[in-house]
Design a protein that fits this description.
By secondary structure, the protein is of the alpha/beta class. The protein folds into two domains: 161 residues, Decaprenyl diphosphate synthase-like (Undecaprenyl pyrophosphate synthetase); 33 residues, no CATH class. The protein has eight helices and eight strands. The protein has a six-stranded parallel β-sheet with strand order 5-6-4-3-7-8, sandwiched between helices. Strands 1-2 form a two-stranded antiparallel ribbon. The chain is globular and about 60 Å long.
Amino acid sequence: MSCVSTTSQGHPQVSRIPSDLDIHRMPAHVAIIMDGNGRWAQARGLPRMMGHRAGVEALKTTLRLCNDWGIKALTAYAFSTENWSRPGDEVSFLMTLFERVLQQELDSLEKEQVQIRFLGDLEALPKRLQNLIEEATKRTALNKGIHFNVCTNYGGRRELVLAAKKLAERSASGELDPALIDENIFSAELLTADEVDPDLLIRTSGENRISNFLLWQLAYAEIHVTEVLWPDFNSVELKKALIDYQSRSRRFGGLDPISPSEQINS
């Protein structure tokens, strides 16, 4: 396992990662579709809500491992725009769970130098949760550790439509020449504008789809699918995903393989 220390400025400093991982080929940004909470609970004869509770613990473990192992950003798909169609009691439970966990973990996130952001249509969330999200974002904004992006009431198609609307408004007002719009200008209007695109997407529970998640940003991400249900995802499974990632040659549409470190420095 890993251990982590901090510098005098509070910056995380990786001192050891698993020996079978190459620290120079770690992904800069990992995205995760956390699938299987309900099936995990059902298999144990438990209410679905218990699966969501267990899933929170798996996310906490994964976040701290990524921070310890030198991964710079983790983006988790916590609640999609489509999840509102779930039973009302389950949605209410999830909103309360988000609030409770954020209250309980905020001090630790701050201490561990995690910078947390919530991506999505936050105005649709309960007001108490909105206020807590605003507090957490402000309190961790200057932290120097891992960037933890929590996609909440997020949909990839909606994000693209909103970006297109913003560019159309800027063009209509004369602020932006439509002929100048390119991939960089478009990316700057996305919720992830301050992040490099994910290098690795992990999806649990064996499902082979991206479910309206980061449709633009995942264009060249390596995809690792595991049969493990999300609450059972742990350090062993994360290491498997990273070993799988490091075994691949990334070409980004070209002929020559490019390592993650070369991508970051390019």
